[in-house]
Write a structure and sequence with these properties.
- Strands 2-3-1-4-5 form a five-stranded antiparallel beta sheet.
- By secondary structure, it is of the alpha+beta class.
- Helix content is about 30%, strand content about 40%.
- The model has no long low-confidence stretch (mean pLDDT about 90).
- A hairpin with a 2-residue loop joins β2 and β3.
- It has three helices and five strands.
- It is globular, with a radius of gyration of 13 Å.
- The longest helix has 15 residues.
- The chain has a single domain, classed as Alpha-Beta Plaits, CATH 3.30.70.
Length: about 110
């Protein structure tokens, strides 16, 4: 049995294409709930490229970090974002249109 890790997604709500932020949050919640039995979402304020935006952070408990990277990619596409940030073992990665990071492989290259 693998012990779950906490992996964090950083999701901005600017320019998401929904008429209300709540619709975007509901979409993200549905995406995560379909994949993970345990997670928390915290709303807040973030800064991206020098601009303030409403954000939320999803903390996901899972032994499968790559599944979080794939979920980040689905979220990015669903919200029509440039990227979704991923916090993994103290490092920051981004799921973008051109790249879904291989978290374990990328981390081993950094260490």
């Amino acid at each position: 049995m693998s012990i779950p890790e906490i992996i964090t997604l950083h999701i901005g709500l600017s320019g998401h294409g929904f008429s209300k932020d709540e619709e975007a949050i509901d979409t993200v919640t549905e995406i995560l709930a379909a994949r993970f039995p345990s997670f928390s979402i915290t709303e807040g304020t973030g800064f991206f490229r020098g601009h303030r935006e409403r954000t939320f952070t999803a903390m996901i408990a899972t032994p499968e970090p790559q599944e979080v990277a794939h979920a980040a990619s689905v979220i990015r596409e669903s919200l029509d974002q440039d990227g979704v940030g991923i916090g993994y073992r103290g490092y920051y990665f981004r799921a973008t249109k051109l790249d879904v990071p291989d978290l374990k492989s990328s981390l081993s290259k950094l260490l």
